[in-house]
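Action item from last meeting closed. Structure (463 res):
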């Protein structure tokens, strides 16, 4: 089509002569045959023709119109359809195909041209197969395998050689058994404590009297506790060593503290806060002891004497830090094997024997309290009475340890120990220091309270 100013020529169409038309009218003259036309004042155009391919008004004051056939109305849809039809005829897209070996194939896809391109598909072993890819019709992409290619799959064996391992068939629909986590209980607990106490007294020209002294004491205790909740068994055990030395003034070093003891208690749950209980207590010393100032004749040494106490009864625990053990069936044995060096009568053993055995009842009370955050007080009281010989005379062994914590390794410790044993008798002295004699002219002996007190700064190590 050729466009010229103020005119439009279309083959087998109409001719336009705007110069003779009114201001609001466009007159169309047929190119080959008469045509009826009406132009309304609202710019609507009505055409009656036998053949009309396309018509484009060129005057600026007229709106854009496009008609396909006579008697057509608004032509906006016709115009858009024409543009879309052109795009469908000429549209094309570029796609890029990539394979495993990074090969690329650019491929144009359109609706007019049927073309195929070769592409190689490769696997991890670099084996390849050829395919042809291209457009075979509008909106359809074709992929074709190269002619002459044959696929072969390995055959599945129905039998297995004898050397094959046995395979266990598992039903995947059933839940597998889960092994329960077994926590191994810790029945035993161990702990220990070592305390080293140092004391010193220094005097110069002290009018009121006194003498210099230096003393040290070592107290080591080891604990082993057993707890089996399934069997309802509890066992508390400890071993203790106490040893101390003192140097008074210009005198030689002397022993002022010596104790070796073990204590065991086995409980079985009975009812409420009561347990069936069995107890064992053993006490002796490790070094020779003298009755100073006489340091030539020893009065004690290792296992001379030695005391063993056994008891069977009930153990009552009102709280976690208090235990009251009552053993109506008890036994107390005192042993002095070396009677040639040690006088066994000092400990109640008859002259012609090396041991003494006493049936009776015993009570052991252990308690621990903390009246303040930095203060700890422990008490151990042991009572024993002989069923046969003077049951009214009760043996007492009471020890108290009060600890005032200064820092993480230093304590101020007060240790008191009181013993009363009716079988252990000592001589009676008068005020002037002479011995009191009986009717036979021999020194009188009687059972008296034995008391010991140690106070000082202690270096404590707990582990």
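Sequence:
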């Amino acid at each position: 089509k050729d466009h010229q100013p103020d005119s439009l020529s279309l083959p087998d169409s109409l001719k336009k002569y705007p110069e003779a038309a009114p201001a609001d009218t466009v007159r169309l003259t047929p190119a080959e045959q008469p045509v009826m036309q009406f132009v309304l004042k609202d710019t609507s155009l009505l055409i009656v023709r036998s053949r009309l391919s396309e018509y484009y008004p060129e005057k600026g004051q007229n709106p854009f119109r496009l008609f396909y056939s006579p008697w057509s109305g608004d032509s906006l849809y016709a115009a858009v359809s024409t543009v879309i039809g052109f795009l469908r005829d000429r549209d094309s897209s570029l796609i890029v195909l990539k394979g495993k070996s990074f090969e690329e194939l650019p491929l144009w896809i359109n609706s007019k041209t049927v073309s195929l391109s070769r592409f190689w598909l490769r696997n991890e072993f670099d084996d390849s197969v050829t395919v042809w890819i291209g457009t075979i019709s509008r909106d359809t992409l074709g992929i074709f395998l190269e002619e002459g290619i044959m696929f072969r799959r390995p055959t599945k064996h129905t039998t297995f050689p004898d050397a094959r391992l046995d395979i266990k068939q598992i039903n995947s629909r059933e839940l597998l058994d889960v092994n329960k986590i077994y926590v191994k209980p810790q029945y035993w607990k161990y702990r220990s404590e070592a305390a080293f106490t140092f004391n010193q007294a220094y005097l110069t020209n002290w009018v009121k009297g006194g003498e210099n002294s230096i003393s040290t004491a070592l107290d080591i205790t080891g604990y082993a506790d057993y707890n089996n909740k399934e069997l309802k068994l509890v066992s508390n055990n400890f071993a203790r060593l106490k040893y101390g030395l003192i140097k008074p003034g210009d005198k030689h070093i002397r022993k002022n503290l010596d104790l070796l003891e073990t204590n065991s208690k086995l409980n079985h749950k009975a009812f409420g806060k009561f347990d069936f209980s069995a107890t064992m207590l053993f006490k002796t010393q490790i070094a020779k002891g003298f009755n100073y100032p006489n340091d030539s004749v020893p009065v004690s040494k290792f296992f001379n004497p030695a005391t063993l106490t056994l008891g069977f009864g009930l153990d009552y625990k009102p709280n976690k830090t208090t235990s009251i053990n009552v053993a109506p069936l008890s036994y107390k044995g005192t042993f002095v094997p070396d009677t040639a060096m040690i006088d066994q009568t000092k400990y109640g053993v008859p002259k012609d024997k090396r041991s003494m055995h006493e049936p009776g009842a015993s009570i052991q009370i252990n308690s621990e309290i903390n009246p303040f955050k930095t203060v700890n007080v422990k008490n151990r009281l042991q009572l024993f009475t002989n069923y046969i010989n003077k049951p009214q005379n009760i043996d007492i062994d009471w020890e108290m340890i009060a600890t005032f914590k200064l820092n993480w390794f230093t304590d101020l410790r007060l240790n008191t120990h009181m013993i009363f044993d009716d079988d252990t008798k000592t001589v009676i002295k008068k005020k002037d220091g002479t011995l009191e004699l009986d009717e036979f002219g021999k020194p009188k002996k009687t059972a008296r309270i034995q008391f010991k007190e140690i106070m000082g700064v202690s270096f404590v190590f707990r582990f």
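Note appended to the action item: Residues 1 and 129 are 52 Å apart (CA to CA).
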